[in-house]
Design a protein that fits this description.
alpha/beta, 5-stranded parallel sheet, 7-stranded antiparallel sheet, elongated, Chemotaxis protein chec, 286 residues
């Protein structure tokens, strides 16, 4: 399916140049706009994949129009095409979630290369988004089975959109790479004690021994999942940060600022909650 593009520029000459490059290379131009109001109307109606954005427009500028585009659909990619380019403008463009920046006069190879990078970045993230949750669920199930010879059963799945009260112990592993994310496992102290006793084949001597064992267990789950995902696509380049553990009687855990998925599972030792997600992060174009 062709990438759908809206061209935002108040110059008929620039629009013609950009349109010719795009259409000659298989892109579908689905609209044009030259003002803020036109941008809002065209984007809402056409819902493009990509917008090329001039910086100088009557009564507005490219950054205000970019914010308007993302208010309608934050997943639409914006590439600025402007005669102006300096460090301050580039910094402001980054801060407004611009995906690429090209200086006029438009060079066809530069424009096509920038679009390909932007689209490829989105496709790579979508590949990760489609795969990660099932992979992490499976590695948790597999690790529990290998280390305790018991099974777990997932009973509910949901997107976590609110803060939640911990069952008693939370282990968090940060994930870094082309995209950043986190794995979180939450369970009660009683479940943790029983689980660690089964893994160690002896009673744990202290809460510190329990949390250390859970940190390593969670690290194994995360490491195995990231290895599987990296084999699916080397571009992910996922790596782990050291795990952190929190425990207490009444702990409120903040939900992530990005989309995460949760699964509650019944185990032989009690309920365990898995939560994992990734953010798009920064696609470095400067």
């Amino acid at each position: 399916m062709a990438v759908r593009v809206v061209i935002v520029d108040d110059s008929p000459f620039s629009i013609a140049v950009i349109r010719n490059i795009l259409e000659e290379n298989g892109f579908e131009v689905v609209g044009e706009a030259g003002s803020l109001e036109e941008v809002k109307e065209v984007i809402a109606a056409a819902q493009p994949d990509l917008v090329t954005m001039d910086m100088t427009l009557p009564g507005t500028d490219g950054l205000e129009c970019t914010r308007a585009v993302h208010a309608i659909n934050p997943n639409i990619k914006v590439i600025v095409i402007s005669s102006m380019m300096d460090e301050e403008i580039l910094k402001e463009a980054k801060e407004n979630n611009v995906s690429g920046y090209i200086q006029k006069p438009v060079d066809a190879e530069e424009l096509l290369g920038t679009i390909q990078r932007v689209i490829a970045y989105e496709e790579i993230f979508q590949t990760l988004e489609d795969a990660y949750f099932e992979v992490f669920k499976e590695t948790l199930k597999d690790a529990l089975n290998r280390m305790t010879k018991t099974l777990l059963t997932y009973k509910s799945e949901y997107e976590m959109k609110e803060d939640f009260e911990s069952r008693g112990i939370v282990v968090i592993v940060g994930i870094i790479g082309k995209f950043s994310g986190r794995l979180m496992i939450d369970l009660s102290k009683e479940t943790a004690h029983a689980l660690v006793a089964a893994m160690m084949k002896k009673e744990p001597s202290s809460i510190n021994e329990i949390t250390a064992a859970l940190a390593e267990f969670t690290n194994i789950v995360a490491g195995n999942a990231c290895s599987i995902l990296n084999r699916k696509n080397k571009a992910f380049g996922l790596r782990l940060a050291p795990p952190s553990v929190m425990h207490g009687d009444r702990m409120s855990i903040s939900h992530a600022s990005f989309k995460t998925m949760s699964a509650a599972a019944d185990t032989h030792y009690g309920e365990v909650m898995l939560n994992v997600g990734f953010r798009r992060g920064e696609d470095k174009w400067m």
